[in-house]
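Quick check before the chapter quiz. The format below is the same one you will see on the exam, so make sure you can read both the input and the output lines.
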Amino acid sequence: MFSIRSKLVSVLQPWLQSEPDLEVKLGFLRSHGNAKNLCFDISTLNRLLDDSACFCFKEVRVQNVNFQFSSWSFPAFTLELSGLYVKLAPRKPVGDGCRSKTNWSVKEKKAILSVLDPEVRDYV
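Here is the expected output.
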C-alpha cells in the first residue's frame, strides 16, 4: 500500500506546491482514498494554456478530494471534489487568438453556434 501511495504522490507532485495529505485504503473489491488541502502550482497550470488564452490562473485550491476505484462495478472510477476554489485573472493575449465579442462578425457567430447546436443557426 505504501508503494501505491508514494506513486500517487509522485504523479501529483509536479502539479502541487507542497506534498499532499493523502490517505489510501486498498481493498479486494473496492479501493478508495482521500486527499486534503491541495494547492496547485499556478505556473504549471498556466503553462498548459496557449498564448491565445484570455485568462491566467492566480490561485487553485481543493479542500477535499475523494476517489474510489472498483474493477467489479460500474462506474469503475468515482471522483468527488469539495471546496474547489479557482481564481482567474484576465490577460492580454499574444496575437489575435482572444477577441472581444464585438469584433466577431455575424458569419463567425453563426458558424460557432451551428457547431454547438445546429437548430440555433436558423434564429441568428
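If your answer matched, good. The helical segments are 2-12, 42-48, 106-116.
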